[in-house]
Amino acid sequence: MGTPTGWLSNGWKHGIVAAMVVASMPVAAQAEGEVNIYSYRQPTLIEPLLTAFTESTGIKTNLLFLDKGLVERIEAEGANSPADVILTVDIGRLTQAAEAGVTEALDNDAIEANIPAEFRDPQGNWFGLTTRGRVIYASKDRVADDAITYEQLADPAWKGRICTRSGQHDYNIALIASMIAHHGVDEAETWLRGLKENLARKPAGSDRAQAQGVFAGECDIALGNTYYVGLMKNNDKEPEQKEWAAAIKVLFPNVADRGTHVNVSGMSLVKNAPNRDNAIRLMEFLASAEAQEIYAEQVYEYPVTPGARLSDDVASFGEIKPDALPLSEIAALRKQASELVDKVRFDEGG
Length: 350
Ligand SMILES: [Fe+2]
Prior knowledge:
The chain is an alpha/beta fold. It is built from 14 helices and 10 strands. The protein has helices at 43-57, 70-77, 91-99, 109-114, 170-183, 185-197, 207-215, 226-233, 240-247, 276-286, 289-299, 312-317, 327-332, 334-343; strands spanning 8-9, 34-39, 60-65, 85-89, 127-139, 162-163, 221-225, 248-251, 262-269, 302-303.
């Protein structure tokens, strides 16, 4: 039997295909020897991993890429859902799946041995696979500093010099939640107001647009995730992004104290997964040193497994020291962080 329309399986030549309805998927696609993945991660990013998994296990992968509504879809499919494994990014999305009750808590020694405790759910509903630092993109020409803390972003010395995307974006919500965790909500509010005062323009656009802002001279420093620097630097499709990357240096905030805030890409086992054993084999593989290095190379992220090799581009940013604050604590403070962003009217700009 073939693979249902909309799925990307190993060996298919494809571009990115929009999700199709699979609620009436034929039973054959759930037969032994396969695993079904629902993914918010782009197929091109994870395909090398899935190919390596199939080569080493013989288990075929079927990948359904969605850019939104992944959890809602599994909920709608209910007991008939073919989903075995969820792959996604950001603690917000990982916890959303767990809170919706579509994940199964997994207790697995092999996975736990490879993924440090701060990067996984204590209950086993989600596991981080790679970390991504929320760093400072600083102008090579106009910023002499080689160390800036998150706290210093509120320093009046930076008035009118900082760019960032919306305060309500998941990446900034997690960062602000980490500030609440470290300093308490009152101090975090004062900090956020100070940062807002220092903005060069209204928060908008992607992280890459902030690097462009630095390149164009609109701001001197910006907040952004590490991997975008690798993606911009090697962007042959939009070569102007290479100039944005060349204009900035990556500064890791708080290396001298608690470390840099990181978020994760991650995975979950789906509740009632029809191919549960294969799903667990895939998850064990994704946590292995072999897969960790493929992942890191492909997406310019940091492997969660200590000692896994970095891509050359990522290594060129310098050493990252991740904040050891458990991501589960950040997840618990996301709502408060979002309320703070509204309260200080962060997205209206400085
Ligand atoms: Fe991103």
